[in-house]
């Protein structure tokens, strides 16, 4: 009788222990799946920066006119990406749509003689992921490289006296009329395309919420790491 009770007790302990292990395993798997989905959302949202750049045939020179149908297609792509990764409930989707749509238009009609050729994220290092139920916070360092082109004066084709005059000009001492004439004069001078490259590391802080089974970003802030300030 005692042996039977001992056997029953051992079986009960093993069953409870097994249930605990299963529960831990299920929780661990859920945690891993959530972290995987959160990383996917964060990286997808960051990659929108790369989507802002137009195809290579339109980035060979800052003065290339981009067709409206190409601009509309880019706006649609960016809008769909925003809807996929940002929360509409928190208002962050509306915020990001406004920012990114304006960025698409700015790239199409640059206010200066500059155009972005490449904006590439080379690495994302997740420093912290905290999950509490259906909300999460993320800290990540984002490594990026950029390349732009601009129209600069072709000094090899400008006569030395004229180049010296331009180089030594003091715009702040000119009257508005003189500044206008100077700008018109330099605008007619020979120009060449110059390439500019840069790297950055930014630390991003994300808040996320699970909506209809999918992780969405509800807010984001960032700062440049020392030595990488613009």
How big is the Rg?
28 Å
Q: Please give the number of β-strands.
A: 4
Mean pLDDT: 86
User: What string gives the helices and strands in order?
Assistant: HHHHEEHHEE
Chain oligomer state: single chain
Structure keywords:
230 residues, Nuclear Transport Factor 2, Chain: A, 4-stranded antiparallel sheet, 4 strands, 2 domains, 30% strand, elongated, alpha+beta, single chain
Itemize the secondary structure elements and their pairings.
Blueprint (H helix, E strand, L loop, with lengths): L1 H45 L1 H4 L16 H18 L6 H17 L5 E19 L2 E19 L6 H8 L8 H12 L3 E21 L2 E11 L6
Helix pairs in contact: 1-3, 3-4
Keywords: Membrane, Transmembrane, Transmembrane helix
Describe it for me?
By secondary structure, this protein is α+β, with helices and mostly antiparallel strands. It folds into two domains: 2-148 and 190-224, Nuclear Transport Factor 2, Chain: A (Roll); 155-189, no CATH class. 45% of the residues lie in helices and 30% in strands. The chain has helices at 2-46, 48-51, 68-85, 92-108, 160-167, 176-187, and strands spanning 114-132, 135-153, 191-211, 214-224. Strands 1-2-3-4 form a four-stranded antiparallel β-sheet. Helix 1 packs antiparallel against helix 3 (68-85) and helix 3 (68-85) packs antiparallel against helix 4. The model is unreliable at 17-26 (pLDDT under 50). The chain crosses the membrane at residues 7-26. Keywords: Membrane, Transmembrane, Transmembrane helix.
């Amino acid at each position: 009788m005692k042996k039977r009770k001992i056997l029953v007790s051992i079986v009960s302990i093993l069953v409870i222990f097994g249930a605990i292990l299963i529960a831990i395993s299920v929780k661990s798997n859920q945690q891993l799946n959530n972290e995987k989905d959160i990383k996917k959302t964060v990286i997808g949202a960051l990659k929108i920066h790369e989507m802002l750049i137009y195809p290579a045939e339109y980035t060979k020179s800052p003065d290339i006119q981009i067709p409206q149908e190409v601009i509309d297609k880019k706006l649609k792509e960016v809008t769909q990406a925003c809807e996929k990764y940002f929360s509409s409930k928190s208002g962050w989707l509306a915020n990001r749509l406004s920012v990114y749509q304006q960025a698409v238009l700015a790239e199409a009609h640059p206010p200066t003689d500059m155009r972005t050729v490449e904006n590439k994220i080379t690495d994302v290092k997740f420093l912290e992921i905290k999950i509490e139920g259906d909300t999460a916070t993320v800290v990540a360092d984002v490594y990026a490289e950029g390349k732009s082109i601009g129209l600069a004066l072709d000094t090899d084709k400008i006569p030395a006296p004229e180049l010296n005059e331009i180089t030594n000009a003091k715009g702040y001492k000119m009257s508005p009329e003189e500044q206008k004439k100077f700008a018109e004069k330099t605008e007619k001078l020979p120009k060449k395309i110059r390439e500019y490259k840069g790297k950055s590391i930014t630390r991003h802080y994300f808040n996320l919420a699970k909506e209809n089974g999918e992780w969405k970003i509800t807010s984001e802030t960032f700062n440049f790491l020392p030595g990488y300030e613009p």
